[in-house]
Amino acid sequence: MATDPLPNALLPSRRGPSFGFLVSSPIIALATICLIAVIASAIFAPWLTSHDPQLLVPANRLKPAGGEFLLGTDAYGRDLFARILYGGRISLLVGLGSAIISIVIGLFIGLVSGFFRYVDAVMMRIMDGLMAIPSILLAIAVVSLSGASLTTVLIAITIPEVPRVARLVRSVVLSAREEPYVEAAISLGSSLPKIMWKHLMPNTIAPLIVQGTYVAAAAILTEAILSFLGAGISPEVPSWGNIMAEGRQYFQIKPSLIFWPGLLLSIAILSVNLIGDAARDALDPRMKQREAGK
Amino acid sequence: MNASANMPVNERPIALDIENLVVAIGKTGAGKKIIDGVSLQVREGETLCVVGESGSGKSVTSLSTMGLLSKDALKVIGGSIKLVGEDILQASERRLRELRATTMAMIFQEPMTALNPVVTVGKQIDEVLRTHTSLGAAARRTKILDMMEQVRLPDVKRIFSSYPHRLSGGQRQRIMIAMALVLEPKLLIADEPTTALDVTTQAQILRLIRDLQKDHGTAVLFITHDMGVVADIADRVAVMRQGQLVEAGPLKDVLSNPTMDYTRNLLSSVPSLTPRPARAEDATHPVVLEAAELGKVYREHSFLGKAREVHAAKNVTLTLRKGRTLGIVGESGSGKSTVARCIVRLIDPTSGAIRLAGQEISGLSRSALQPHRKKIQIVFQDPYRSLNPRITVGESIAEGPINYGVDRPTALARARELLELVDLPADAVTRYPHQFSGGQRQRIAIARALALEPEVLVADEAVSALDVSVQAQVLKLLDDIQTRLGIAILFITHDLRVAAQICDDVAVMQRGQVVEYGPAADVLANPQQTYTRQLLDAAPGRGWDFANFRAVDTTMATA
Question: Which domain, by its residues, includes A55?
């Protein structure tokens, strides 16, 4: 008996998240461009300005914008433009760093607690406990206990994000482990790490990309808040938060000290959040089904 | 009562007249035509069954009639649909809404999703009356209760104020029918209304539709893939394939003398209820699988009070010899899948023993079980979910052997051989599951199970999701493989026709227990238990021998 013919003209293709959504609408495209511009300005800061962001020149304090100093100088005579560019490095590093670290740790915890019921009960209560602590308070506590440095700030910001990622991964794993192909893998004698890595983990990639953007945006904001409160990294290293904190005293005479870093902070966070929303719309399994279904 | 009820069917007025319907994909209908020139007529008091396999366009035809095509995806680009003389395709949205309740009504496959879960069923029926009639509250209630009596719901006052989740699947479908018929529409469209129901419930619902139609003179357009259902309720049959009408005519003509090859093939693919001739049992063949007093109890712990116990399986004892096929049949909730999953150790039985090739495996730990896993493999019902969509077919098939120490190149080469064994081209190894049809995927799943050279293959409803012609191919494949490899098959199914054609022995399960167990020829042709007899009586189309295009002598089957 003949079987129905194989579909032709179909090349082997890997079905995974595609990144076409980044240009799916003018707003998203604009957000993508803005984010790329912010990232590029931070990376290429040494080429965009010749000023040292940490050089104190009291003679040049509170110079207006224009001329030698593109955006003027702050109370210690440091170039504001240079400080904002270099400050972006810290903010973006914290954003990216805490997104990656929280995803790696959260993925592991989520996979394990999604698969083993007995680990789940304990692990999720710990996560619930972590989520109950206000993240800013936790961060201030961690920083004041172990001193201000990029690493401590990163750790302080990442800890409260881990439970969110872990819960997300766990929920994906809980539904995926009921899939017949996972049960088939069990009956094929696949080891647990293999089942998790090959059959369960790929299901979490799309939601994790989306969650990662939210974590990054929240982390950039939290870092700025910590720096503003004086609980962030040391004040001589520029970051958007501490530039604004220092500018606060001179707000009446020179509002641009707060305006420019604030603007960049807003653009960066808004762009990341918009891209996150677009990613969620593009990767949502229900949307995918609607496209595939007849 | 309807005035035309006494007229011969072919002289009654035409209720629905579909003329040369063309439906195409796309907002403007610029895409591929998925209905191409279909013409159908249904007269008052007549049942027209539209049959076809998936993708034949039978549901699109009914949705076009209801004016329910999704506006962005599909568009009617030609032909006419006349409902009692009025062209629906020209009707305004407002007029359509009116027609949908008063002149035509539809019932769907899944009665749970068609009902609103947070509104009592009485209120949901009431809404139809409130919108389309000027009756007072008391009159409406009387009418609804009367309608609920007519669809033979018990204790109608209690059900009137019940929420859908309190009702069984059959009762929900009765509510749907009551809602559809409460305004006495001229046309009832039933889209696979019994497919999600158990056979005994299905038989009741079919009888109900038949009786109500007689009383009200309704024209029924009944969409189904099940030839058995067609034989039971149709006056006329229309066979569809790939958007075209293949053949239409009175029931007897189509079933006994189909003119088109496609119809002949479709009918020949329907498995017969008469068990196939028994294969000689060779007692020298070793017993490969034995389940002894297997039990699975689910305990529901509540915070206060006693734990509730549910026996999903109780005292199940089965024996399977090399090269034989044992069927477990039963309705949903009978515990047949629980038994299969216990035997494969996807879930742990709470009592009893499982001996696989002489080795007790029911109490083994995960690691101790590992060497024995390869001796028993399972094929699942849904071919769309049983293969990981992200890895190639070759990887899927090679996964098992690689787990047991075969090196990758050898395992992949073996995967190519296995694909040929299941009649697929060897170069399919590099493709992904979504590039295959349901039947092809099920072949791949079978190849994957065979890759470990198991002694027992468990097929859990493995052909239930497939179209009847594909089902026939997969059943034949299983049969070939069994002959060639001498594998033992444990076949779980709710379909007695399939069981009759593939099983040597059959165990009938009800509420977690085996009620009858013996050679298929005895159990299915000469059942001893009332429950088995009920199941057989409820099997649709039992009066018809499809493969031989003739009616069967029913006295033989029950003798």
Answer: 24-255
